[in-house]
Amino acid sequence: MADKQRMLVFVGSYAEESADGVYVYAFDETNGELTRLDQVSGLKNPTFLNLEAPRRKLYAISETAVDGAKQSDAVSYDIDAEEGKLKETSRANALNGPSCHIQRSADNRYLTLTSYHKGSISLVEMKEDGTVGRVLDIRNHEGRKPEQKSHVHSSFYSPDGRFLFVCDLGLDTIFTYRIDQDKLVPVSEATVKEGAGPRHLTFHPNGKFAYVINELQSTVTAFRYDAEQGSLTEIETVSTLPEGVKVENGCAEIAISADGRFLYGSNRGHDSIVVYAVDAETGKLDAVQHVSAEGKHPRHFSIVPGGRYVLVVNRDTNNLAVFARDADSGKLAFTGKSAQISKPVCVWADRF
Known about the structure:
The chain is mostly beta strands. The protein has strands spanning 7-13, 22-27, 34-40, 49-52, 57-66, 69-80, 85-95, 101-104, 110-115, 120-126, 132-140, 152-157, 164-168, 173-180, 183-191, 198-203, 209-214, 219-226, 231-239, 250-256, 262-268, 272-278, 285-292, 298-303, 309-314, 319-325, 332-340, 344-351. The chain has a four-stranded antiparallel β-sheet, with no helix packed on it. The chain has a four-stranded antiparallel β-sheet with strand order 4-5-6-7, with no helix packed on it. The chain has a four-stranded antiparallel β-sheet with strand order 8-9-10-11, with no helix packed on it. The N and C termini lie close together (7 Å). The model has no long low-confidence stretch (mean pLDDT 96).
């Protein structure tokens, strides 16, 4: 489809190798309807995906074991956009522990995988045809004190692709790396409040700010970003919960609208999506809405390209909920549309 008008949705989940774990849906932007087109098995816990729409590629993680020790594969698929089908094209060992996140460099040279349990990040070769190559480097994080244990949760490239930012929930630190001769080279570190637990990160489209959602203390930390040095300087930290609300809660995903006016985060426990208005001059945040996730444990969500919808996957109620998004206010409204999916963890969408 040369006009790229068809929207496809890809979902990763907790699943046994024998069960379906990755799903493909068609998404109707006129009414918010989801139609399942494909599902694939053969992967254990393909919880996180990375979508490369221009080359019609999808990447997934899959848990494996070597001599009884948990490791991870990276798996690549070709996307048949007309049929909405996936075809596996490669699978290779990619990390020395069970992984929770997979990222891809904008130049399609590298994949990076992170292991929460192992406290490590791997740099993996991507071949010219988009298939998975060999492991190039692995960095293992260590705590500064005996009671500190690394839990590396995610990795994100800077807008210009020069730096890689790694959120370590256990060490309350965002580590900055650059890639030099196929190696991960430490550049700098930024810390959050002790016990906050940084999980995921997103950059403001203007390139001046970065935002980190802190899982353990239900907060978002706004940083000023120095693109030359690859460094982060804290501006403020705000709550993801409504004022006065006391509830057992853990945050998960964070995303920003394409125009940079609104930031979104998910609360697991309060089971909501928080919406902030973003000050483009200062980077500061002002909460404007807390909307029910229409399920329990919203592990991930995605702003659909074009910005008219937000898709939320709720792991504990096995559903994907569709929200309409108001571009002027940033606020979300449940459309009444949803799809049943077993233990969904990750969702991405794009036009093909």
